[in-house]
Structures are given as C-alpha cells and as structure tokens.
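Q: Protein A?
A:
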Amino acid sequence: MLLQNLLTGATILAIAIASPIEIGILARDDPKPPDHSVCALNEIPATNNWAIYAPLDAVGLDGKCGNHYLNNLRGRCGVITTWKCWHVNKDGKHIDSHDEPENVEGAVMTFYTSVFCSSNDVMAAMGASAKNDERPDSCSEPPKWMLPP
C-alpha cells in the first residue's frame, strides 16, 4: 500500500512538472498593441517563457517573421526553443502578413530560454534586432492580446 501511494504521488508530481504552464497568468488588459516594443517574462522552474512584441517600424515585413530577432536572441541567450512568431493588426489579432500586409501593426514572438537568459539579455537583443534601435525599459507580465493564439 505504501508503495502504491508513493508511485501515485510520484506520478502526480511528474505530470505537474511536465505540464506546460501558460504564459500570462497575470496578463494585463491592455486593449491593443502599443506603438513601442514590449517584453514579457514568465519565470517557471528550469526555464524562462518569453513573449515580445515589436511594432512594424521595428520588426519590418522583410523575410521570415522575426528572424533577425531570433538570431540576436540566440546570440545573447543561447538555445531558444518553441519559437513562434505571428503578425498582428491594430487590435492585436493574428493576421496573415501575405494576405493583409497593409493591416500589419507589428509582430508577437514567443519562446523559451534557460534560466540564465535575463531580461537584460532579451532587451539588448531586441534593441540590436529592431530596425529603429528601439528596446523596452523592462520586462513584465504580457497584455492578453500578446498570448499565443
């Protein structure tokens, strides 16, 4: 009986640790994308979950979504996993930049890093990536429109 209880407890713990934790549990209610870059961090055990937003004048529409951001983030933080990038309109809604390039306001990028990648690293990579050299002053909880679709 003791062994069964230990195995049940270990299974529950393993499921809890392996379950993905959504970024933005403390998401703000900002109504739409701002005209400046945003950095959001969700620290979880053994990894950091990031969401960043860059307005169109910073990210541009040339090439693959956020590719120059990904390259600079890898240079500052090392391994980047589960990279996602999508373009958003003025309401923060996901849009296809090929079908509606005139409606793109910016891009949202989400990814995971090791715990050794700091807010300063991400903000520096954002500044180096931005076509307008813009970088946020801090990283905080993301607005709801910035959460993955």
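Q: Protein B?
A:
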Amino acid sequence: MFKVLFVSSFLAFFLICVSVRSAPIPGHLRNTFRSIQAREVFTGGNATYFLQNGVAGACGTVHSDSDFIAAMDQTRYGDSGDVSPLCGKYVKITNILNQKTVTVQVADDCPTCNNENSIDLSQGAFTQIATIDEGEVPITWEYVDSDGSSSTDNSSSGDDTDNGSDSDNGSDDGSNSDSGSGSNDDWSSD
C-alpha cells in the first residue's frame, strides 16, 4: 500500500513538474525575456556632434540641427553610397560621465568617427547629454525601439528598414505624429 501511494505521489509530482515546465510563456513575458536576452550595450565609443547644413544624410533625408538623429561609424553603417539597413533604427546613447541619455534615429554615416562604437549626433541630440563646449564625450549605446525601450533586434540588417522620415513633432501631449521634424524632448532623460 505504501509503495503504491509513494509511486502515485511521485508520478503526480513528476507530471505537474513536466506540465509546468512545458507550459507556454505568455506573449508579453516572452517578449520581455527576448528583450533582456538580446540587449547588447556597446562600449568604448565617443559621441561628437555635426551640423546638418540642409544636406541629406547617407540615409537620404534632410534634417535640422534640432532633430534627434545620429550618424553611425562607416564600419557599422556600410557603403555610404547605399541606404544602410541601419537607417531609421533607433539607438539610446548614454554619456558615461553624467549618465544623461538620449534616443536618436540613425540618419547618416560617420566617416570621421574614432571607431565602430562612436556616433556623431545632431547638435540637438548632443546637447541632451553634453554641452557643445565639451565637443566629445565617452558613451555607451544600444539599439532600442522608437519609444526608447530595449529592442529585440540588435542586427545591422533587416526588412523593417525606414528611411528616417518618421519622427515625432516634439509635442508635449505624448502623441506621435509624422511632421518630419524629428525633435522629441520626451526621448531623452537626465
């Protein structure tokens, strides 16, 4: 009798463990796990700034100095004669000296960046993390979604390429509209 009870209890426990282990993870948790797993923070780079001068970047769009955009190192960007799969992707940049962050959209390549982890920012984006007088600051950065949350796509290629023309109008109501200005004060934090 004891043997049957023990085997039955063990079998019940085993079946519960197996069914819990194989239960599907809800979608929102699965995406969270994927984001945490896929997140890669790039180090050893510097942020600088550049003026737009009314000229289209390598991604083919014209921006103002107040737009929150970035030029990626040419090694990472690829052939500057082509529109890179990075165009339109978002990166969150952290100044390691003061921990200020800004989220920007890739719109250009940077042939003068120090290394593949360095990024050239528009003046508007740079002033969110440093002063113009500083000119160059050490950074870390990561790919993120347009809302600044950790991205599950850390690749430098993909079919969801955007030409960088989608951007926020900087309104304070929290809504996103395509005005083409690219300025969005909500993308940065101190």
